[in-house]
Amino acid sequence: MVCGGFTCSKNALCSLNVVYMMVGLLLIAVAAWGKGFGLVSSIHIIGGVIAVGVFLLLIAIVGLIGAIHHHQVMLFFYMVILFIVFLFQFGVSCSCLAMNRGQQEGLLKSAWGILENNTKTDLESQLNCCGLLNVTDSTFDTDLRNCPAPCKLKRSCPTCGEKMLNHATEVLKILGGVGLFFSFSEILGVWLAVRYRNQKDPRANPSAFL
């Protein structure tokens, strides 16, 4: 049976936003857990994950309140924001799926260059590697000197770039697939909000179009 009634659209939109709220809370909890256990020392990474979680949580709250009260203004802003998020996430997901090895190396170099030293040493310790890519520049030599990885004692350390690139394609495919899945759930939310916003509330005045 097609979900076309007012109550069905309302329940579907509420359920979708409850899922978004759970995902937002999960992101915040994972970031706090990672910081608390010392898994990630970079405050920028932790702050970024928490910011995404809070943003998703706020959008879900706006959508949930708008759905419960059939609030036209809140539903409108919910639709607009969710559609913008969909466009951004869809583009990023497609880029992840289409990225080749050369582009992956460039992305890794850019990301490695802006990482803090504490974050670099954490990665080197966890991955048991030293430096990003074995190229003749001062950055690699500095990373090699500061590297705390256990493999350094054996004088035979792979570079972190090699280890990351070995799994980068698979990881990017997973990220792209998950991103596409959530992007289509977002466009579903936009469609539900548009449909629900233009429906009449049977409990209201029958002559009023809400």
From TrEMBL:
Disulfide bonds join C129-C160, C130-C147. It is a multi-pass membrane protein. Its main location: membrane. Keywords: Disulfide bond, Glycoprotein, Membrane, Transmembrane, Transmembrane helix. The chain crosses the membrane at residues 12-33, 45-68, 75-100, 174-194. GO terms for cellular component: membrane. Signal peptide: none annotated. It comes from the Eukaryota. It holds the Pfam family Tetraspanin. InterPro entries: Tetraspanin/Peripherin, Tetraspanin_animals. It is found in: Membrane. Belongs to the tetraspanin (TM4SF) family. PANTHER family: TETRASPANIN, TETRASPANIN-31. This is Tetraspanin 31. It comes from Oryzias latipes. The lineage of its organism: Eukaryota, Metazoa, Chordata, Craniata, Vertebrata.
